Fold:
Amino acid sequence: MKHSIFIDGGYGTTGLEIRERLAARPDFSLVQLAEAQRKDPGARAAALNDADVVILCLPDEAARDAVAMIENPTVRVIDASTAHRTAPGWVYGFPEMEAGQREAISAAKRVSNPGCWATAFIALIRPLVRAGIVPADFPVTVNGVSGYSGGGKAMIQEFEDEAAPTHTKAVVRSYALTLSHKHLPEMQMHAMLAHPPVFSPNVGRFYRGMLVDVPLQLWALPGRPSVMQVHKALADAYRGERLVEVASLEGGTLLPMEAALALRDPPGAVRAAALSALDAELLKLTNGLALYVFGNDKHGQVRLVALLDNLGKGAGGAAVQNLNIMLGLPEQAGLV
Structure:
């Protein structure tokens, strides 16, 4: 049986990523609108109401308008925008986030695809809040760097324009300096925090991939948990998951996840590098999420680090994973 899929906004960065992952699959029929039809409200409304699943890759207000146009009660929606990530009635599309989350996604008519930064942050912090290691009102900070593809077509053009003035060719650029990044509401809500974290996002001069870092002062936490206790809470939370892995902690030495090793040739080069450094591009072109715990019990400190592809598990790959779950298909179909 073929499922009809309409990607509204399918010609932006995320939409193209999803379209590419679905195009070769025999279980899907992609609804296509000609360029003129995409601007025709009647043609667009028909596509929105005729598809089995609609995937929205639109700005927030346009995504809300698209949902309002859907009158067919059988149409299911995955929204890749920020518009519905904390909205009542929408299921958050992070299957590994909690026991029962897959079942909720499978049964849902409306699923909000998580943000890339939020996916990494929630994956690192929610298990620690749930385990009582990090209090909900603890002052949490998070920083990291993402590939410039996360900024969409305008940022991609800016970073790739050879004619751009030298002073605009930043290697790493910090942004969201007003402390009001659009991912903060979902980061706070789904990490179960009482306050938004202090968030310092950066974009680097590489196309895709990201590294997200949450430092914690263990001596300031109730009970002064050890590095091993923090690691165990994360490892327990994702045990058995295929797409989220927690790197093992042996004798204080961090070992890279085996899935990451398989992505590089020779694998040994990755292992050696990962012991002293992490590369934000390590999981590019995959749908994997790797979590690491770097700790120093003497100082009572840890750094929790997440690696993922901002266009994979952080966007298009996550949407395909959610689509598979919603339609009862193999969860990793179409994913690397």
Notes: The first helix runs from residue 13 to 23. The domain at 116-310 is CATH 3.30.360.10 (Dihydrodipicolinate Reductase; domain 2).
